[in-house]
């Protein structure tokens, strides 16, 4: 386990309420799945401390996990801030690397193409370093679609037509799975129909 010792000081509840979501803090590395006593991780508050309404404060760690903290509870690990003049030294867990969670389109997508893709990744980062832990393969149809977001109608039915904004034109409808649609809008996927301009020319 790779850790770094840093000088820090524990924050009081009053100090935490003065923090914003961009202030880097350190919280306990303990999770439900993995117990790491006396070890901390970099984190950020999920909402400004000034919005604290009692109870526990929630922070999101650099490893994308949400943890609850009780700054004033002596039995809780607490919240720390890096401070060269701090009275305590804490151990901070370092990152070992990243796990990529992405949508990757491989034309043709046969076994040879995937093998070549993995071989290229291993060549770039070292043999036996790139590990494929989870692989979900999904074939996609060869069809061009328009992806819209349409405003969810409110109030009485039969009123004006719902407003619509186009988000993307794509060859594969699976693209809609990865678009974040606005609140109050719903996704609409339709077969792409090119606009034909019938304006006569001279």
- Class from secondary-structure proportions: mainly beta
How many individual β-strands?
Answer: 10
The run of helices and strands is EHEEEEEEHEEE
Number of helices: 2
Enumerate the spans where pLDDT stays under 50 for 5 or more consecutive residues.
none
Portion in strands: 25-35%
Quote the distance from N terminus to C terminus.
76 Å
**What's the Cα radius of gyration?**
25 Å
Largest sheet: 7 strands, mixed
Global outline:
flat
Average pLDDT figure: 83
Helical content band: under 10%
Describe the protein's architecture and organization:
With 202 residues, the chain is mainly beta. The chain has two helices and ten strands, in the order E-H-E-E-E-E-E-E-H-E-E-E. The longest helix has 15 residues, at 111-125. The radius of gyration is 25 Å and the shape is flat. The model has no long low-confidence stretch (mean pLDDT 83).
Fill in the keyword field for this structure.
202 residues, mainly beta, seven-stranded mixed sheet, three-stranded antiparallel sheet, 2 helices, 9% helix
Topology:
Layout: E1 3-10, H1 13-16, E2 25-28, E3 39-45, E4 57-61, E5 66-69, E6 80-82, E7 88-93, H2 111-125, E8 145-151, E9 164-170, E10 185-191
Short description:
Helix content is 9%, strand content 29%.
């Amino acid at each position: 386990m790779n850790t770094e010792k840093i000088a820090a000081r524990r924050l009081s509840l009053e100090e935490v309420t003065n923090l914003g979501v961009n202030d880097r803090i350190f919280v306990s590395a303990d999770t439900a799945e993995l117990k790491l006593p006396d070890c901390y991780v970099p984190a950020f508050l999920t909402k400004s401390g000034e919005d604290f309404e009692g109870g526990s404060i929630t922070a999101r760690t650099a490893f994308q996990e949400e943890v609850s903290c009780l700054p004033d509870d002596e039995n809780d690990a607490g919240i720390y801030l890096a401070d060269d003049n701090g009275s305590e030294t804490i151990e901070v867990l370092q990152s070992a690397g990243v796990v990529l969670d992405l949508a990757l389109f491989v034309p043709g997508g046969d076994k040879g193409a995937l093998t070549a893709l993995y071989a290229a990744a291993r060549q770039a980062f070292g043999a036996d370093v790139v590990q494929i832990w989870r692989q979900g393969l999904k074939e996609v149809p060869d069809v061009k679609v328009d992806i819209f977001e349409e405003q969810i109608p409110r109030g009485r039915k039969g009123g004006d037509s719902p407003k619509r904004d186009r988000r993307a034109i794509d060859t594969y409808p699976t693209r809609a799975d990865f678009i974040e649609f606005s609140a109050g809008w719903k996704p609409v996927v339709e077969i792409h129909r090119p606009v034909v301009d019938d304006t006569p020319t001279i």
